[in-house]
Amino acid sequence: MLDRDAPATPRKLVEVKGLKMYFPITAGVLRRKVGDVKALDGISFDIFEGETLGLVGESGCGKSTCGRVILRLYAPTAGSIRIDGTEIAEADNQTLRPLRPSMQMVFQDPQASLNPRMTVAAIIGEPLDEHTQLSKTEKLDRIYELMDAVGLNRNFANRYPHEFSGGQRQRIGIARALALNPKFIVCDEPIAALDVSIQAQVVNLLEDLQDRLGLTYLFISHDLSMVRHIADRVAVMYLGRIAELAPRDALYDRPLHPYTQALLSAVPEPDPGIETDRKRIILTGDVPSPANPPKGCNFCTRCPRVMDVCRDIKPDLAEIEPGRFVACHLYETTAAAAGSTGASEDYERNQQGVSL
Question: What pTM, to 2 d.p., does this model score?
């Protein structure tokens, strides 16, 4: 007899495998290619229907490029992108056009992403003009419905973007993204340009819309505290590759990759007593150039736990615990995996004031 209370297996809405995005470097009068900037260098992950995957990392690691490539705003150099079962990595514009309504984006800068010469009604209604056959009345009703959904006054429909605050402009961008009832939305640092008080409003709006409409998010941010609030799982990027991918609570409570440990050690602790005694993991050196990454692990030049193998062989992203993926030679063998507790204990000791 079937168990009616057993949870259904979540469906993969987005599947990314071996995704690469290289930007050519040219030089000379003839602009000949002399190299590549490896913005994405073979990343793989899945996003399940109805969940939020947080994508974090320092500036320049490839987070925004990843979001744009997944939506095919850039054509990838190599790899596979499947959204709702459809392969789009090599699809042409004619094939992509009917798929566009199901995948949308909320951009980082609400001022730059809105046309200053268009009214709010025209901005929100533009996707409807391009992809639907609604009458003028039906389109206006839909615009008003979207403005209500994101908390904008209908009386502001004929105003221009410069007449709104940053938070209101971001709500306009969210309304535009929702116009065609998408399944998947890439949120590219949607709160980075906003004041702290407004950030909470926008994030709460995104969560509310997700609950009501069943949306799936890729939430790109460098704000680790906000990602902890909104994400179900978190992927940590470093220099175009994913270093660690894990459920949110597991990653924040027990980070495994040395880079994740260093990244989370930089997050301030609200408790003054703990914050006073806690010592951060200070990484030495600079991030290598994506045009000339290290031969082995991308993090080997700054890692406090670096081994000889790290400088020669790139580690693969492997599942070392159920649902936890780490790209690190510390966890590749059974013995090393058994020692993963030791790595997390090092992190915990450091949090208590004992440095690595």
Answer: 0.87
